[in-house]
Design a protein that fits this description.
The chain is of the alpha+beta class. It contains 15 helices and 14 strands. The strands form four sheets. It has an eight-stranded mixed β-sheet. Helix 4 packs across helix 5 and helix 9 packs parallel to helix 13. The longest helix is centred in the C-terminal third of the chain and has 18 residues. The chain is elongated and about 80 Å long.
Length: 394
Amino acid sequence: MTETSQDSNNHISPDIKANFSSVIEPLFSEHYLKSCYPGLIFYQGKRKMLQINVRAKDLPTLLQAKPSDKNDPDSGKNRPEVKGHAKEIKDYVIERAKDNKSWVLGTITANVDEQHIEIHELGRGICIVVIPNEIKLDITDGQHRKSAIQELILSNESYLVSSDQFAITLILEGDHRQCQTDFRDMAQTKQLDNSLLLSFGEFEGRVGITKNLIERVRMFQEKTNKIGRNAPTKQRLIYTTNFIARFVSCIFADEPNNDLQGLDVEKLSEALAECLNNFFSECADTKDVSETKHEKLTVSQVAAFKEYSLLGVSVGLEVLGRLLHLTYDQDRNYFDVHKVSELAQLDWSRKNNLWENNVIRRSSNSDTKAYEVVNKPTPILDAVQTVKSTLGWM
């Protein structure tokens, strides 16, 4: 029989296990009609806290969200749910679970008055936590996760999470105002940028292709901000991971938010990297920047490129992506070399009349620049149509 890592790390003698069981089993037996969990006691911020793990089916009855109502923040202990966010979490769990892939949800934080529960301390921070049936834990952080799991456990797909457990951090706090303060303090966490989420995404679909392109396409190598939403010119960065991911989706799906799941990442990456290296080397706007390594680029070069060329901003990449989509033969995984060359021969500078009145508009404010870049779906599609007409691709 193969020894698991759990077996090899478990050096507790049977006698110790038996003694431990003899201590805790009576407590579970005594409180079998209540919610009873092993727990850990710890202290933080001058308060006593507990960590317990709860079965998925217990969450709907054990936890309750008390969001603020209407215009009265004092009416609840957390913010109202953001519409659609719980569904996003539920869909994430369903998709991963059905594909037999790993998934994870963060710890839920809740408040409860210590007087309303029983804590049987066993020493060294180990305890048994007993929660009477009439007591609800007030969510301080994690109401969307709770709602997602609740919807899932009450659905026909409950089997996907029926064996899973979820961590709950209990702040032993009964004061309503302090509970609100706890929520406020936890809610100050900065929202993660899309580029960071993509950079840490699983190596498949458009995430995998994007990561490959950043390494293989000279125009993107070390010129892409992998963790932020902006590309600081002073750091000689031109693109972000999010820009390139949207670009990739446009190329293979003709829309910017397709995850491209189920596609052969390596096969598509190889064909697209070759296509883009040829395009950026042939295009007059990008040739110098593409062929120059990051450490040899100057801040002024990067600034000039981003200000001069449409390909230095995300809207330009999206236009190019949708046009490259028209050159791609999916059956042969091949980009039409002649058509790609035609695109490279275009004048991609912002001053070109080709982009006027679609993604480039004359500014109505005389105190600012003479023109402005418009990053909206309709102008982008209008620009694509204009190029198709100009090149006779209609």
